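Fold this sequence, please.
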Amino acid sequence: MTGKIAFQGQLGAYGHQACLEAHPDLEPLPCPTFEQAIESVRKGDAELGMIAIENSTYGRVADVHHLLPESGLHIVDEHFLRVHISVLGVPGAQLSDLRRVRSMSILLGQCRGFIREHGLDTLSWTDNARAAQDVAELGDPSEGALASELAAQIYGLNVLARHVEDHDRNTTRFLIMSREPDFNRRGHGPMITSFIFRVRNIPAALYKAMGGFATNGVNMTKLESYMVDGNFSATQFYAEVEGHPDDRSLQLALEELDYFTDRIRLMGVFPADRRRYERRGSGD
């Protein structure tokens, strides 16, 4: 029996494409929301969850950081998906026929230049693949969708324009989550350790807590803050650092962090996707 990997969206979504790239051995399981994708893994309906966390053009995916700490799941891998955005229309339509395109707001925000150049109206949709399906059902050559070529194949649409994203390295990062943690060193590249923490309510606590990573030579690649329970004074941080918890330098840094915090939770240990570093250089 084939295992499953859950993602937010319906078939043809970029999460679907990420599943096919990262785990072609698993059957993609579409879920309407991130909460339901996480729940399907928690209940055992899927072995893994493919959860979008941020886009290089648009920024972080809203609400996902709030879901991670209480998900009960563990981050076991990451996947960087190069997001090529296509303009989809019904068979026979031309780009010049389009008057309006629909897609998720996060995708519309990645194509502002194209939309402005062509004078198109927009509709914010709940799901990119659903936008493609709706255009197919409407059958109107003036209506288009911004989505993947995978969605065009699934819903019988034509690709009217390719690679319309504003930035030529437009990339979405996904976290792959599991019910069980995996702390093994995997692959030949660097490992990433992720965790959440809350600093103690003392002066300069965050500054002092971060100092331990600098003095121990640990590179922090991400630090995100967000309020907890709508309380302005209760701030939680999500962090990622290069290294494995068995590394002495990271152990020392985490010990120092622990002194200035009232809560630390390890979220996952996983190998860095090679594209994490390619984006720093000239490669795509």
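The two ends are 36 Å apart (CA to CA). The CA atoms of residues 202 and 260 lie 8 Å apart.
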